[in-house]
Each structure stands twice: as C-alpha cells, then as structure tokens.
Amino acid sequence: MISTRRQTLLHRRPAPAPGLLLAVGLAMLASGVDAAEATPPNIVVILADDLGWADLPVYGNRFHETPAIDRLAAEGLRFTQFYSAAVCSPTRANLQTGRHEARFGITQHIPGHRRPYARLIDPTVPPALPLEAVTYAERLAAAGYATGYFGKWHLGGEGYGPEDQGWQTVVECQGHTVPPAITGEPEPLRTVDFLTRRAVDFIRRHRDRPFALQVSHYAVHLPISTTPDRLAKYEKKAPQPGFPSRPDYAGLLEELDDSVGGIVRAIDEAGLAGRTLIVFVSDNGGLIHDQSGTIHTSNLPLRSEKGTLYEGGIRVPAILRWPGTIPAGTICEMPAQTADLHPTFLDLAGIPAAADMPPDGISLTRWLREPGAPPTREALHWHLPHYHHDSPASAIRRGDWKLIRHHEDGRLSLFDLAADPGETNDLSTSRRELAVDLDSSLTTWLATTEARMPRPNPDHDPARANELAGKGGRKKR
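Given the sequence above, the corresponding structure tokens read:
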C-alpha cells in the first residue's frame, strides 16, 4: 500500500537559473573536457530493495528472467564486487551524501528495533538524515539540474523527506500496490508501474535540460507479491537446482525489470542515451528468509544475507550504462560502494567536491571509461553495531582481505575473498598478525568517524536474548 505519510505528495520547486549550467559547461571546457562532453550528463539511479547479488541472470541465476537488466549489462558495465551497507537506511544515507552512514549514526534501518535482553545495548538510530547533510540532488540542483525522486525514501518523516533534501519533484510511496485515490486510475496500480510512469513523465518533461532522477523501488522487499499472469508463468517453469526458485519472487523481480526497461526506453526515445548515465543497484544483500523461516531467495555462493556483514549481506548487483562513454559489455572487478556514487555524479557534472567532504566515497569516473584500471582506495569499511540477522559487528576490507570484528566477544574473523568469496575459511588464527593489523586499522577508522558503539547490557538474559522489544520485552523506543 501507499505510504501513510504525504500520500498525495507531489512537490515541484523552481530550479536554479540555466545560466549556472552554462557556467558549469564553460568550466569543463576550460579544464580540457571535449566540447561534446561539455554538457553535464543526466543522472538516473534505479534503486532496488533487498535484491541480492545472486538474484540476476547476469550474476548467475537462471530461474529469474530480467531481459531489460540483461540488456543494460550488455550495453554497459557490470561490477562484480560492488557494496552497500547491510540494511536499507544506511545505504540510502551514504548514497545521497557520499558520507559513510556511521558519521550520522544511521547504521540500522530507521527507526530500528531493540532486543532488550541481548548481551549488548546497541546505539539508538537517529529518526532522520540531518538536514545539514548535503545530498547529490542539492549539489546538482544548485548547478541547474532538474531533480526528481520517486519511491521509497526511508530517511526521515515530515520535514526530512526528499523534498527537503534537494529533490524538486517528489512522489514518495512504499508497498507493492497504489490505490486509485493516489493514481486517479479506476483500479489499484502495481507500485512498480506507478513509479515507472512518473519517471517516464519526468524524463519527457525535462529532456531539454540536464536532470537527476532517482527511482527507489520497493521491489523485491517483503511481503512478496506479483501479478497473476507472472505468478502463473513461473509456476510452470522448472526450478533451478539448488535455488529456491519462488514463482512470486521471480514475478516481482520481472516487474522490476519491466520498470528498468521502461525507463531506459524513455531515455533512448528522447534521444538522450549518449548524454545519460543510468545506474542500477540494490540497497543491500538479499533476504534469504523472513521471521517465519520462509525461504525467499539465496545469495550463494556468498555467505549469509541482509542484516549481516558477510558478503551475502553487503555485496550487491551494480550495473551502469552510458553509451559512448562506458564501453559496452564490460566488467569491473574493482571493489566499489554506494557511497562512491555521490562523488561520481558531481565529478561528471563538473562540480568540485566540498572542502569538508571526508574521503568516504571516491569518484568512479576513471573506471567507467577504463574498467580494468587498478584500484586506488586503501580500504572499505562497514559498521553494523546492531542486532539484525547477526550480532553487532564492524568490518574492513583491504585488497582481497576482509576482517569482521564481532562486538559481543571481540572475536575476529579473517577471510581471503579472492580464494574464498563464500567466507568459509576463517584465517584469523593462521594469519594472526594480519588480523591484528586490520583490526587496528578498523579501530582507527571507527574513531575517525566517531562511530557509535554498542555497550554491555546490565539486563542481559541469555534465555530472552533474541526477544524483540514490543513482543514480551520493553516497549519499542
């Protein structure tokens, strides 16, 4: 169903004067950018919800069918080691700002949940992304871009929505169906279709000027549902051995794929393909099972799922297309992350980074043109000081080495991702010196970001440790 907040929200703010775009173009020319590239590119982000790294055919799945996403990969660049945060709100925060979510304390979904009798008390999650945080929409709008946001926000309520963070045209909704009162149609619409229509309309209205568009889908988030025809289609299909092969999940993913196809088609029909970067990415790893134990998908060969710092929780599909700039059918094996998108967009638009911008994200511009270029970043970091589908933890990846610190007992886990992407072989004992070194670097990073840490719980009760607040425990807060 539609979000109960601002159900009919549709804000349009006047954009800055087009003269700013001329200034950006002149600056790019002065810096040596080719005249054909002087016009800042359009930016289109299509964000999936809970889509796992292994869910797409281009990443190995053969039960699901996603021809539009397959075509996007064939015409563009596919990352094999692209990362998000472990859950949705943190990813959305770092994508919007280019700053690690630990700097805001948004290290769990908003508002989070509590386990009052667990071993540790995890930090309280702020109710919203602070307005002082500068989003890529704010930076692009100030340079003359038209900006449009459609779909799930999950970064704050009234006064902290996308329209308060630089997005000029906004339709915010969640769930898998939208009622007639919102759409004006005689029957409810599937949310995927509704958002696609809004996005296509935005593209057509702004085809003559640079624009930034983000479509944040609810698919493939629980509760899983799809249309009767798609459900029937996959019920007739033979399952993929070793994979859950759920018809409802596959149908919902195909709906998402139809949206990707519709948005890409609108870009191409408007003659904007060569001037538009399209980014398709997920907000976290796949959810293997719900609280009832029902299996929905698999992240194999990666370990575990959403809400953990194992690869299945944080490695996500990421595909980028920009004909004429990104070589078609290419693969980039460099580790990258959602926090890199903000600085990439500003770089492509010719907008200098803010003087106070921390080095959390890097511009991926070079790797869009040269996917095989060597990495330049020293390390990637994650901070999940909460109980979700695992106990509180933090992690660091340097090169192919990844270390996870488990906060309940200080235990370290060390993995060589090049040889063991499934994280089955813990090398923290045999490579103790390396583990200690990585843990020391992680400690420094946590201090630098002023990351909020869990603390011992005086009410710890092992028999009730997994109990959620509001379900026999303390009231939710």
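The longest strand covers residues 42-48. Try to locate this feature in the token string yourself.
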